C-alpha cells in the first residue's frame, strides 16, 4: 500500500508524475494519519455505506475510507491527479475514481455519506448544492455574490438528495461562519441555509502545519446531519430565503426596511412580521432560521 499521507510519498508521487501543486484548485494535501483517522471516526463509516469523497487529491483519505466503506466514489477535478489516484488505490475494487467538477456531479439518489477537504473558494457553492432547491432556469446561477437561495420565482420546490451525513474539512473561519449563532457579525445568509437544513456540529481544529503545501490559515472539521423538515412547506421556505437574501444584503437596516427588497408589499410584510411575534425594528442578523420561516409562513 502506498502511504499517500506521508510527505516522502507525496514528494515521490509528484516527482514521478511531473506534478506541481495547483493554487487555482486550492490544493493542500493532508500529511497526518491521526487527522485522517479522526475524520473517518467522525463519519461512523460501516461496510454498508456509500461514500462520496470531494477532492480526493492523491488518495490519502481515499485509502482510509476504502478500508471501512462498502463503496467509495472519489471525485477529483484535476485530471493530472487521476493517474496518481489510480496508482494509490490500485487493487481496491470498492473505489471508483471520477475526474469531474463536484458542482456538476449528479448527487446519488440512494443514501450516501459525503466526506472531503473543501478548498476555500468552493466551500459555499458545495454547501448550497447539497441543500438548496433546484433552480428551474439554469441560466441563472443559484449561488449569487451573497451566498443565499435563488429567488422563489426561479425555483422549483424540488430539493437535492442531501447526504445522510457530511463530514467536511474547510477553512476554520468559514466553519465558524457556517455555525455562527444569530447576533454575531459572522452570522449571515449561508449560516441560515446550513442551520435551517441541517444539524451542524463543530468537531475539531486542524493545524495548517500538517498540510503540503502549507496554507496561510488553519482548518476545521464540521459534521452536518439533515434535519427532518417534512412538516415544513417548501413554498414557505422559498419565501423565507427571499427574506434572508434581502435581509443580509442590507444587514444594517431594520427588517422593516431590508425585507422590502424581497418584493412583498410593505403592509403584508409588516403584518407578517408582527404576526410572527417579531419586532419590525430588529435586524436580520438577530433572527434564527426558524424566525425567518415563521415570518414567511404569514406571507400570502
Q: Which features characterize this protein?
A:
300 residues, alpha/beta, Rossmann fold, Helicase, Ruva Protein, domain 3, 2 domains, seven-stranded mixed β-sheet, two-stranded antiparallel ribbon, 11 helices, 34% helix
How would the global form be characterised?
A: elongated
Number of strands: 9
CATH architecture of the largest domain, please?
Answer: 3-Layer(aba) Sandwich
- What's the helix count? 11
CA-based gyration radius: 21 Å
Show unreliable segments.
135-157
Strand content: 15-25%
CATH class of the largest domain: Alpha Beta
Order of H and E elements? HEHEHEHEEHEHHEEEHHHH
Could you explain how this protein is built, in words?
Strand 3 (71-76), helix 4 and strand 4 (95-99) form a beta-alpha-beta unit. The protein is 34% helix and 16% strand. The chain folds into 2 domains: 7-226, Rossmann fold, CATH 3.40.50.150; 234-297, rRNA adenine dimethylase, C-terminal domain (Helicase, Ruva Protein, domain 3, Orthogonal Bundle). It is elongated and about 65 Å long. Residues 135-157 have low confidence and may be disordered. It has a 7-stranded mixed sheet, with helices on both faces. It has a two-stranded antiparallel ribbon with strand order 1-8. Helix 8 crosses helix 11. By secondary structure, the protein is of the alpha/beta class.
Amino acid at each position: 500500500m502506498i502511504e499517500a499521507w506521508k510527505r516522502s510519498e507525496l514528494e515521490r508521487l509528484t516527482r514521478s508524475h511531473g506534478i506541481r501543486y495547483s493554487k487555482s484548485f486550492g490544493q493542500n494535501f493532508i500529511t497526518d494519519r491521526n487527522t485522517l483517522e479522526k475524520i473517518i471516526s467522525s463519519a461512523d463509516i460501516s461496510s454498508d455505506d456509500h461514500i462520496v469523497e470531494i477532492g480526493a487529491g492523491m488518495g490519502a483519505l481515499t485509502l482510509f475510507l476504502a478500508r471501512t466503506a462498502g463503496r467509495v466514489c472519489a471525485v477529483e477535478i484535476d485530471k493530472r491527479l487521476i493517474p496518481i489516484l489510480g496508482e494509490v488505490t490500485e487493487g481496491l475494487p470498492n473505489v471508483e475514481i471520477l475526474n469531474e467538477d463536484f458542482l456538476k456531479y449528479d448527487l446519488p439518489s440512494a443514501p450516501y455519506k459525503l466526506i472531503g477537504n473543501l478548498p476555500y473558494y468552493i466551500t459555499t457553492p458545495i454547501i448550497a448544492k447539497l441543500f438548496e432547491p433546484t433552480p428551474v432556469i439554469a441560466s441563472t446561477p443559484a449561488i449569487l455574490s451573497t451566498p443565499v437561495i435563488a429567488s422563489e420565482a426561479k425555483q422549483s420546490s424540488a430539493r437535492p438528495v442531501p447526504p445522510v451525513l457530511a463530514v467536511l474539512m474547510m477553512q476554520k473561519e468559514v466553519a465558524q461562519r457556517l455555525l455562527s449563532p444569530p447576533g454575531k457579525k459572522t452570522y449571515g445568509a449561508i449560516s441560515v441555509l446550513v442551520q435551517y437544513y441541517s444539524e451542524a456540529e463543530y468537531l475539531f481544529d486542524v493545524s495548517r502545519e500538517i498540510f503540503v503545501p502549507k496554507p496561510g490559515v488553519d482548518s476545521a472539521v464540521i459534521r452536518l446531519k439533515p434535519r427532518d423538515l417534512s412538516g415544513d412547506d417548501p413554498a414557505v421556505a422559498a419565501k423565507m430565503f427571499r427574506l434572508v437574501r434581502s435581509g443580509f444584503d442590507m444587514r444594517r437596516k431594520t427588517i422593516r426596511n431590508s425585507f422590502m427588497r424581497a418584493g412583498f408589499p410593505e403592509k403584508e410584510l409588516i403584518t407578517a412580521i408582527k404576526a410572527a411575534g417579531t419586532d419590525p425594528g430588529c435586524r436580520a442578523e438577530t433572527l434564527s432560521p426558524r424566525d425567518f420561516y415563521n415570518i414567511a409562513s404569514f406571507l400570502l
